[in-house]
Design goal:
The chain has 174 residues and is α+β, with helices and mostly antiparallel strands. Helices cover 30% and strands 16% of the residues. It is built from 5 helices and 5 strands, in the order αβββααβαβα. β1 and β2 form a beta hairpin. α1 packs across α5. The longest helix is centred in the C-terminal third of the chain and has 19 residues. The radius of gyration is 15 Å and the shape is globular.
Length: 174
């Protein structure tokens, strides 16, 4: 498992920091979006400070992650990822997403990443646009696509293994 985690971390770094933008119609778009039937892991970064997260407002919509509670309660823990300098993008969340290759299920990896930013009533997420941390220029993402068979069998183990090896993102709950 460790070798696979190291390989995934190399791929994450190679992916770089990708942007999320809102188009003229108010639709969110991902730069270098994962393939339409992709599955894998994703990371959410921000250049907001730890203090900003501690003082954030949370979305009023159902299943929103309580950003200020998690930031305040975890900010002094040793194995939580912290920014190393002001203004840098730092990992605050990571997760998994995807669907079976021939499924009509809508939520592929790209859709799951977008859910973290949309302020909707659906699945649990950061719901960034429903907070006072909604300036998209202060947010980035990256991802690593996995083969579906590996994803289906090992997704939780890989997600947790990455966190244990590299640090726990401050807003990742479980």
């Amino acid at each position: 498992m460790k070798n696979r985690i190291i390989e995934i971390e190399k791929l994450r770094r190679k992916c770089g920091l990708l942007t999320i933008v809102e188009d003229n119609n108010g639709l969110l778009k991902l730069s270098n979006r994962p393939s339409s039937r992709g599955c894998g892991l994703y990371w959410i970064y921000t250049s907001y400070t730890l203090e900003d997260l501690c003082n954030a407002t949370i979305s009023k919509n159902k299943n929103a992650i309580d950003i200020p509670f998690l930031a305040k309660s975890r900010k002094d823990l040793n194995n939580v990822i912290h920014p190393s300098e002001e203004g840098e993008f730092w990992i605050v969340y990571n997760g998994i997403g995807g669907r079976k290759p021939n499924s009509n299920h809508y939520y592929d990896l790209g859709a799951r990443i977008l859910q973290e930013f949309r302020d909707n009533q659906k699945t649990g997420s950061l719901k960034v646009l429903g907070t006072n941390l909604s300036n998209l220029t202060k947010w980035r993402y990256s991802y690593v696509e996995l083969d579906y068979s590996e994803y289906e069998i090992h997704k939780r183990d890989i997600e947790t293994g990455w966190r244990l090896e590299n640090g726990w993102p401050i807003l990742s709950k479980q």
